[in-house]
Amino acid sequence: MGRPVRAETIVLGLCVALVAIAGLAPIAVMGFESVWHDGHFSLDHYRELISSARFWPLFGNSIQLALATTTVCGLIGVPAGILFAKSDLSLRSGFMWLLTVPLVLPPYFVALGWARVVARIGTIASDWLFGFGGCVLVLSSVFLPITMLLTFASILNVDRRLEEAARLVSGWPGVLRRVTLPLSAPGIVFSLVLVFLLAMGELSVPSFLRYPTLPVLSFTQFAASYNFGAATAAAVPLAAIAFVGVLVESAFLRDRDYTFRSTGQTLFISLRHWKSPLAALMAALCFALVILPLSALFADAFSPAAMHEAMQRAGASVVRSVMYSAVAATILMALGFLLGHFMRGGRQRVLSAFTLALFAIPGTVLSIGLVRLWNTPGTWFIYATPALLILGYTAQYCAVTTRLSLAGLMLIPTSLDEAGRLGGAMWARRLFRISIPLSTRTLVCSWLAAYILCLRDVPIALMTAPPGGDPLPARILTLMANGAPPMIASLCLIMAIASLIPLVILARVIPSRGITA
Amino acid sequence: MWPRPTRGSRRRKKIMRKAIGIVVTLALIPILNSCRATGSRTVVVYVSEDQVFSEPILKDFERETAITVKSVFDTEESKSTGVMNRLIAEKDNPQADVYWANEPARADALKQRGVSTPYVSPSAEGISDQFKDPDHYWTGFSARARLLLVNAKSTIKPASVMAYTDPSAKGRAAIANPLFGTTTDYVAALFTMWGDERAGTFMNDMKKNGVKVTTSNGESADFVATGQVDFSLVDSDDAVNRKKQGKPVEIVYPDQDPNGLGVLILPNAVALIKGSPHAENGKQLIDYLLSKSTERKLAFADCAQIPLHSGVETPPEVRRIEDIKPMRVGYADLARKMDEIQPFLKEWAGQ
Fold first, then answer.
1. Which structural domain, as residue segments, surrounds residue B200?
2. CB A478 to CB B75 under 8 A?
3. What predicted TM-score, i.e. pTM, was given to this entire model?
4. What is the distance between the alpha carbons of residues B26 and A327, in angstroms, rounded to a whole number?
């Protein structure tokens, strides 16, 4: 008689199968399509891509844009994260949440806001915005919170006893340089890699600001010519860079478990006479990056006529967006929690790297693969329904919920689980009686993060929504062609409200100490 | 021994049960939703016409017939060919019943690839045969025209597209990238009417004359409105929009003299999809789109489209079809020529 299969193994198998169906299978199909031409192996799509006059400039543009965005985010986000975590800066909590707002909105909102601002300034500003400079400005505003929040969380993790010891022999600049920053480096590097990859794969902003990049080419190949092979070939360099990013991240975090563990009261830096100037600087930053573009965007949104038209045009899309995001967030929360549970203690590193690679792969690429895989007569129940969209969200964002769950689970002493095991409790019982009850806040954070990410997603929404089932970000984008600006502004405002409600809840769930109790 | 449940743990258990219930219900929604709408009161339409103009028409249809319309719209980024290509990709597994194209070349491409099927709509009566497929695979309605938009302060007063090669217009004219959209149609029409050699020379002369290549007709219209260039070939809806916005522009219907080339008319076109799931409802939608009342609505909408039925009321800024000299070009020839000249256009545009 063979060994009985454990419930844990079966559940792990099912989770891995879901990630494989949602993410691995479409990517594999795309890879195959790109090298299989007229019934035989061919690299024609790649040859054509590399030899075309457009490829190298677009590749260069994508790299330049990602590098510039990462640099700006690093230069502003890291100091901001340090200030918010370690100093007695006035209003730091308010500044931090305000700077986070662009991250929870679809990225093209900020671009749209800046377009409204420069329309009032004149042609020179407009020429600057619609190009490289504008893309860097917008993407930096959108991705700055990633660097800022991860720096903030990493710095709070640093053991205060080490800082106290260092303070005996050095001033704060030395402590920060030699103790705090080196110990926070994995989180900071992870945030920079993430920003680089997200900026590389961003579609809506370069497309709106008419800056040609590889994701725009890949999307156009798909949307304008449905040429799967060519679209895949255009996406392969992006996927390759995403893979390199994952390797870099893995190398930095090797043998280190990344948690949001509180080590007691943080040591604060007293800013003294720098307090007011730095508060003024932060206020200026919030005004320039958030208040100015968003107030320009929403300026026309409040007219009753525009709001009425917006609700008429997109009321159903709002409901759909919320519903799809809620369903996907629920699946992602459960999947992330189970995967996090299995990854505890450094197991399943390959799975961890794979989910991160799926997060880094541009949504356009993933969507192309999903459409190619499921567009068959036998799978209409996936292709012609919101199931395809939800599969896309699941593949793209499971890394986020997995990592958040893992960070939360790391804080539960393993002795509790071991005690349950010794008491004869089966795996499922221990999961439901120990891990889940002690992870309520982790689960809430994980659900909210997934909900926000799904709600703001553009490429997957645009390419995989079923007929008559487009979510709000996709609908706003299609209505933008010749739509009245006040109506578009009202739609953006509705979308912002739908995104900000969970952010406010998140702000209450995470007071200042991290995601766990 | 596992400890006896306490009051607190019972409460947690209750909460957990409720949470699981919510999770299961939420997870069931897409499954329930995934029951494909195969009922008789649904029609699926893929639309290349701008959503802002096409959706109100589809909503009116829904209201008047109680047939639910499920639509997929194109985005600006896909240059209005995304849904056409999606239809081609779905040929063996059609999801759509009707294709509303924003120009006949796209509908003709579906005919060539066996994606659409013939349908003679009673509403098409009164529309000139020039705007219909001879085999009834598609029918045109509500058209755009390719017009010259001229800055009111400009000293150049073009009456023909030949103005693009006039030395006085050196560096003072714009045109949208001919690789995309209706500019491709226009250039293909020139190649069809004039022959490859003359049209190629004209395009090269235009380039030598310093024409500014823009990303879209909308951008070209903005360049004219702000005086960055003196004139540009644009779609009639872009031209009328700038005029309505009070910009200092004039609209010129080019090449209207008796021996002139005429204006390129680009109607919307509607086609029934072969093997569609709701063919009868699709036919009803086609009849509705081709009706005079739909043409009137599109003439008065911001897209300011020209009705193809004669005698349909139009606003003052929209000329009636009977008052325009159209370019005599077959749309099937145009579609073929668009494919043929792609290498030339790529080279011309430097891509």
1. 145-264+342-349
2. yes
3. 0.78
4. 5
